Amino acid sequence: MRAAPKRILALLAAALALSGCRGTDIKISSGTSPESGITLDLPSEVTTSEPVFESAAEEDTPPESKPAEPEAAPEPVEEFSLPEEFYLEMSGLIERYGLNPGCDGTESCSCRPEYEEIDAEGNVTRPRDRIAAIYYRDLLSGYEYVLNPGAHFPVASTVKIPFCTLIYRKLSAGALDPGQTLTYEERHYFGGTGDIVKGDFGQQFSISELLTLAITVSDNVAYEMLKDIQPWDEFSSFLSENGCPHEEDSRLSKQKICAESAGAYARILAGYLINTDDEFSETFRQDLLKTRLKMLKSDWNIYRKYGWTGFSLHDIAYVEAPRPYVLAVLTNFSGEQDGDFEFFAEVSSIVEKFSQPQISDE
């Protein structure tokens, strides 16, 4: 994969901003979030384009343990929009895969993609609809495309993106010791993916080791252990401040995710990687490049993390392209049907086809 020209990354550092959730399908928008770690001035105009179609400590974190905020940078105003052909191809893709029947594309949409209707005898009377939601944002202009923002899915392992990013921010600020060791105890046990669960209680790992395991192999026990040094209340507030206003998207138990919150996850990740250049951000970058199940794709460096349960298959990414962008695709796919993984690649292809101009590497 190629890296974006340095001049584009410098421009991006001056243009990126985090914004709150919104409920329209497709939009050009911009905003600021002073708690985001990226403090930038943005134009106030918002133009809407026409649509075509999971125990944590309860104590507060001392003020000195919070990461420092980067200084604001001047923000170049850019105009950008996706052409009509983008919307036509995306609409055709959704139709070809038979997705989103009955979804009205608004924040009040009542579709519940993890459920199917079952009668008293346990027979399925109505199969679960195949649902997908998409979030795209051009980071130089703030232009957004959001499909099906009303659908909320099980969060799966995508929550490890902002959770690990917050800890990495503290490491970069010197608020945590990367060599601090944590011990695997019975209370940390969690099934599913990972390596730690294959060993015995009493194993010890440094914070740095746990972060790498949480990202590269989506280690669930590593994630549970890291909760000992990252209070959930603080993390929940961090999510809300950075674009996840829905309570179900930040709660500890049975956490959910929608397209707008997935976009916030991606922007949190991009913000740290763009604004931070140290050993910790470089380790994070390399781990994100190694993470499994490469569903979203790009010709450029793509920093991504998937999430997968029996009834949700997601992928969220920051793409270091000539026009850097973030992309999130959420589905209720099982991963067992034809096209479940190919869909992500096809969305990637359409986005990159229409979002990237011919920019010289000079």
Describe this structure in words.
The chain has helices at 6-15, 84-96, 160-172, 207-216, 220-226, 232-241, 259-275, 279-290, 342-355; strands at residues 26-28, 117-118, 124-126, 132-138, 143-147, 153-154, 181-183, 204-206, 256-257, 301-309, 312-320, 325-331. It is α+β, with helices and mostly antiparallel strands. It has a single domain, classed as Beta-lactamase (3-Layer(aba) Sandwich), CATH 3.40.710. The strands form four sheets. It has a six-stranded antiparallel beta sheet with strand order 1-5-4-12-11-10, with helices on both faces. α3 (160-172) runs antiparallel to α8. The two termini are 17 Å apart. Mean pLDDT is 81; it is low at 17-65 and 70-74.
In short:
With 362 residues, this protein is α+β, with helices and mostly antiparallel strands.
Please write out the topology.
Blueprint: H1 6-15, E1 26-28, H2 84-96, E2 117-118, E3 124-126, E4 132-138, E5 143-147, E6 153-154, H3 160-172, E7 181-183, E8 204-206, H4 207-216, H5 220-226, H6 232-241, E9 256-257, H7 259-275, H8 279-290, E10 301-309, E11 312-320, E12 325-331, H9 342-355
Antiparallel strand pairs: 1-5, 2-3, 4-5, 4-12, 6-9, 7-8, 10-11, 11-12
Helix pairs in contact: 2-9, 3-7, 3-8, 4-5, 4-8
